[in-house]
């Protein structure tokens, strides 16, 4: 397998602006035109941003050399990953401000629903505990707390479960908007 060994760096003041990703895309395109099948590089394991970038393109750790991690990627895999990432970026970039705001609002509703569900669940348990401490006769074989919970908190527990699930679904569906606005695709 013909492997292209690369080295690259981005000036500290220019980091976080997508320059490293663009540079890596150009290196991959150039290596492909030259007939290479794979790319190899070494990265400091504490350079988390660079390591995350390389992983996002498909690089995998193949070993260590001194204080560096050696990584390798097939150019076919890297090219496919970059095309997919760029398509996602283009879709998010072409989204209108109204659509972005709508997604942010849905995310906010999801977070509020999740919080409200957890708060309602806690309140139901507290109410059940207070009720259980005052009741002297029990008609079921369950313990005081569970009997009190069934008697006082059935509907609130069901409602809290619905709110939590609804919140999780909304957050999972809309969380991509935050990544796209930071330029991380």
Structural commentary:
Helices cover 64% and strands 12% of the residues. The protein has 185 residues and is of the alpha+beta class. Strand 3 (60-65) and strand 4 (68-74) form a beta hairpin. Helix 4 runs antiparallel to helix 6. It is elongated, with a radius of gyration of 26 Å. Mean pLDDT is 78; it is low at 177-185.
Main attributes of the structure:
single chain; about 180 residues; alpha+beta; 4-stranded mixed beta sheet; 4 strands; disordered C terminus
Computed CA radius of gyration, to the nearest angstrom: 26 Å
Strand percent estimate: 5-15%
Classification by helices and strands: alpha+beta
Assembly type of the chains comes to single chain
Give helix and strand order, one letter per element, not per position: EHEHEEHHHHH
Q: What general outline do the C-alpha atoms trace? A: elongated
- Poorly predicted regions: 177-185
Helix content: 55-70%
The major sheet is characterized as: 4 strands, mixed
Integer average pLDDT: 78
Query: Tally of extended strands?
Result: 4
Figure out the total of helices: 7
Terminal Cα span: 29 Å
Question: Strand order within the widest sheet?
Answer: 1-2-4-3
């Amino acid at each position: 397998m013909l492997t292209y060994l690369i080295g690259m760096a981005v000036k500290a003041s220019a980091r976080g602006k997508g320059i490293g990703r663009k540079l890596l895309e150009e290196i991959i395109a150039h290596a492909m035109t030259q007939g290479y099948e794979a790319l190899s590089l070494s990265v400091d394991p504490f350079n988390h941003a660079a390591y995350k970038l390389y992983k996002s393109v498909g690089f995998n750790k193949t070993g260590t050399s001194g204080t560096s991690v050696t990584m390798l990627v097939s150019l076919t895999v890297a090219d496919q990953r970059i095309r997919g990432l760029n398509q996602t970026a283009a879709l998010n970039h072409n989204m209108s401000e109204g659509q972005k705001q709508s997604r942010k609002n849905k995310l906010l509703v999801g977070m509020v629903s999740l919080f409200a569900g957890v708060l309602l669940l806690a309140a139901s348990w507290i109410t059940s505990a207070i009720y259980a401490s005052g009741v002297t006769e029990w008609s079921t074989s369950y313990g005081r707390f569970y009997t009190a919970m069934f008697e006082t908190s059935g509907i609130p527990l069901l409602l809290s479960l619905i709110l939590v699930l609804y919140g999780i679904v909304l957050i999972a569906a809309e969380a991509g908007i935050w990544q796209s606005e930071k330029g991380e695709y």
